[in-house]
Design brief:
Layout: H1 2-35, H2 39-67, H3 75-105, H4 113-140, H5 143-172, H6 177-200
Helix pairs in contact: 1-2, 1-4, 2-3, 2-5, 2-6, 3-6, 4-5, 5-6
């Protein structure tokens, strides 16, 4: 059907936009997080780079199911999921160790202003992507595309954590709140890592349920 063909084009376009956005967000967030000594913002940016790897798997998946909606996950997607899962676990380890160290030495970021700005933009952009992906997925009656929308929703949750921790520190200067926010990001990254390895072993489409 012509309508379905157009919807798959939109779904692929959304996947490509997600990749490009995460690259930009990762570059900006890691740079500003390093400059401002905000571990939460730096970790958020690092997570964005991992989402880029996942994004390539999603884009490939959309091309596959467009040709054959009943096809199963292929080796490219399984490899992308394993690499993504390993990257998430590595990030979690680094965030937890650094957070504990920062708490131990009483480290505070210079500012979390940019964390507030970036997280606010991310919440808006990612929420719009969730709505659009769900709309396309529903019209196509595609469980894989709907699952991708749920994965994007996790990015919204992580953005909220960054916004709350950055906002509280910027307003009240509460010690360790940046590190606590980082641990919150680590929790979601760990959950995503588990999800990636589970999906790599199964034939269920999509990056998460």
């Amino acid at each position: 059907m012509a309508e379905n063909k157009e919807l798959y084009k939109i779904a692929f376009g959304l996947a490509v936009f997600t990749i490009i956005y995460n690259i930009a967000e990762g570059l900006i967030s890691t740079y500003l997080g390093f400059e401002d000594e905000s571990l939460a913002l730096f970790g958020f940016g690092s997570d964005s780079f991992i989402e880029v790897i996942s994004g390539f798997g999603i884009a490939h998946m959309i091309l596959r199911i467009r040709k054959n909606p009943s096809s199963k996950r292929d080796d490219f997607e399984r490899t992308a999921l394993r690499i993504t899962g390993t990257a998430f676990y590595t990030l979690v380890f680094g965030l937890i160790v650094t957070s504990i160290y920062n708490i131990w030495i009483g480290h505070k970021p210079l500012t979390t202003f940019w964390g507030v700005i970036i997280s606010t933009i991310s919440i808006i952009v990612m929420w719009l992507l969730v709505i659009w992906k769900r709309k396309v997925g529903s019209k196509l009656d595609s469980a894989p595309i709907l699952a991708d929308a749920n994965c994007t929703l996790v990015c919204v949750y992580m953005s909220i954590i960054l916004l709350v921790s950055s906002g509280i520190y910027e307003l009240f200067g509460i010690p360790y709140i940046d590190s606590i926010g980082t641990l919150g990001l680590a929790y979601f990254a760990y959950s995503e890592g588990i999800e990636c390895f589970e999906k790599a072993k199964s034939d269920i489409n999509g990056c998460c349920d």
